[in-house]
Design a protein that fits this description.
single chain, mainly alpha, 7 helices, disordered N terminus
Amino acid sequence: MPDKEIVYSDKFWTIPNVLTIIRIILVVPIVDQMRINTPEANFIAFILFIIAYLTDFLDGFLARAMKSMSKIGQIIDPMGDKILTITVSALLYFSHKTGIYFFLLILMRDLVISMGAIYALNSRKKLVQPLLSGKITTMVLGFVLAMYLLKDSLVPMLVDFHQTLCLIVKYGTYLASLMLIISGLHYSVDYYRGFLMQKSASK
């Protein structure tokens, strides 16, 4: 795992960090609307979810553009992503809208990434950079979870494309599951090569 020369500040109150905090806070009303589980509530949850996911891409872009990358931001940003995706996928599973395998893939992949990041930070004092496969998986997963919410909203009732949405959700779930497996394996191999092998070699 090659190290990148990135300078991180110790500032907490930066615009990217505020966006990350907003994303975490948005999980609460999203959960609330999903528990109500009416077409209107699911549409509100869909809109809030889209806003939350947009903050994920916006905070990273602004952090690089404004050169305001912070140490705390590199920790809370991925944490916010995982809180959002795990919570939404868990509610979808417990409401019988998706299978347990999809939820478990999301959970296990995020656990792999989190444990690797914690190990790198504790033992090597390094912040793990996201891999390309991880970024693509995040995009695909966000789209699919949003489609789950949209499928049960009032939109298909107003515009007759419920069957199309069902197909998008079905095959999107297959694609997202494949990407979760690929990126999970990619992170596992990357952690092993970058940290565990280096640790063995240094002994």
